[in-house]
Amino acid sequence: MKAIILAAGLGTRMRPLTLKTPKPLLPVLGKPLIEYQLERLAEAGISQLVINHAYLGEQIESYLKDGRRWGVNISYSPEPEPLETAGGIAHALSLLGDDPFIAINSDIWCNYPLEQLRLPKNKLAHLVLVDNPGHNVMGDFSLMNGLVTLESKAQRFTFAGISVLSPALFNNLPQPKWPLAPVLKEAIGQGLVSGEQYHGYWLDVGTPERLKQLENDLVAKTAIVEKSSS
């Protein structure tokens, strides 16, 4: 299975850190955020990767190159301007092929076991959902019997930015620049999106404050591991 790492955002909420550096290259304990994604995908046995980029994307290509350093093969899908998530994925489909693929945001941190990701038969998407963080208390979707729903009265969860998608999901985008949410909602309304709740650590690293939070959490986790092993 191939994977696409979504890295074409402008990173406006991260300013001033992103004035000269694309958000995927912001360091977390001295290592660019996107590098952790490469490592987790490689550990899961996923070696054929596509990375889309727009804002300062040449820096991403210059740093990651062909991915050989991490045991993966990277193809790039540059965008003349950010095409939003659905548009960016559709733009990269020639590199992703005809089979379902993993899509993962470059600006999240999550310990989800990526090797477990599968797209169930006759579905267009499978989403990983998490408990709602403070910055998204209303959530995005509900989950009932393994299906993602738009049921407003059911418990709602936040889309983790990790999914398995069918290329067919992007067959009829209204225009090249298009967000993912309306595409998913249309498929959800047809019962074509499955999902699961993940209970482990997850963080949307969308602001300087959350970037600092991630570093603090990782330092604390390392200290606990070192203490338990001593």
From TrEMBL:
PANTHER family from the UniProt entry: SUGAR-1-PHOSPHATE GUANYL TRANSFERASE
Protein name: Nucleotidyltransferase family protein
Coiled-coil regions, chain positions: none
The organism's taxonomic lineage, starting at the top: Bacteria, Pseudomonadati, Pseudomonadota, Gammaproteobacteria, Oceanospirillales
Signal peptide range in chain numbering: none
Entries under SUPFAM superfamilies matching the protein: Nucleotide-diphospho-sugar transferases
Pfam families: NTP_transferase
Gene3D superfamilies recorded: Spore Coat Polysaccharide Biosynthesis Protein SpsA, Chain A (3.90.550.10)
Stretches assigned to the Nucleotidyl transferase domain: 2-117
